[in-house]
Amino acid sequence: MDGVGSYGAGRTGSTVDPITFAKQPQTILRVLSWIFSLVVFASIINEGYVNTGSERLNCVFNKNLYACHYGEVVGLASLLQCTLFFLVDYKFSSISSVKERKKIVALDVGISGFGTFLYLVSFFFLTHQWYRTNTDDVPLNQGAAAARAAIVFSFVSILTWAGLTVCAVQRYLLGTDVTLFTTEHMDGGGTEAVEPGRVSSFPENSTAPTNQFPVC
């Protein structure tokens, strides 16, 4: 019975419906997080450094290179994580081991929660450094749009990553859905033996839900 209906997925080996998968809240949040992370990373890497009268490029956030580097690292790491777990989510039903599913979902909980924390720090760090930036350091508002974009999308990333954390926790708590364990899975295809006067623990017409993905 390993891998049947565990941690929110459907039966092992079931065919993935791309439309159903795309409509899942977790998938939508994952895609949005990927887009927001791309904006944060691209904004800083492309326009986050300005030239203020010398050949040296300074970070637009109060000339604090740590601020720019932090935003770049968080954005890039988030892009890679979203890409990896998007593929894992799509292939989740093909994983037969309940233990492996549990490890994946637990890892998703940890990484999503950590991602929420990183973007929380990013938002306050970048906002603070931008507030302290001297207007003379950004002539003609050079890089200002990129700085504001990085701040705004760091904030909305907090919301999407928090949503991913909630979804991952929900899947982890869901655990194994025993209602999908039919008699055929329990004894290899035979009929459950029922003693006289005892009601079978499995409904005769037990069927698996058609939705193979978790609610969240």
TrEMBL record:
Sorted alphabetically, the keyword list is: Membrane, Transmembrane, Transmembrane helix
Q: Which family does it belong to?
A: Belongs to the synaptogyrin family.
Looking at the record, which segments are called Disordered?
Answer: 192-216
Q: Does the keyword Translocase apply?
A: no
Task: Please list the residue ranges annotated as the MARVEL domain.
Answer: 21-173
Membrane association type: Multi-pass membrane protein
Q: Which GO terms describe its cellular component?
A: neuromuscular junction; synaptic vesicle membrane
Q: Which residues cross the membrane?
A: 31-50, 70-92, 104-126, 146-169
Q: Where in the cell is it found?
A: Membrane
Which Pfam family would be a valid example here?
MARVEL
Task: State the protein's name.
Answer: Synaptogyrin-3
Q: Where is the composition biased (Polar residues)?
A: 202-216
- The primary site where this protein sits is membrane
Q: What gene is it encoded by?
A: LOC106516510
**According to the lineage, what is the superkingdom?**
Eukaryota
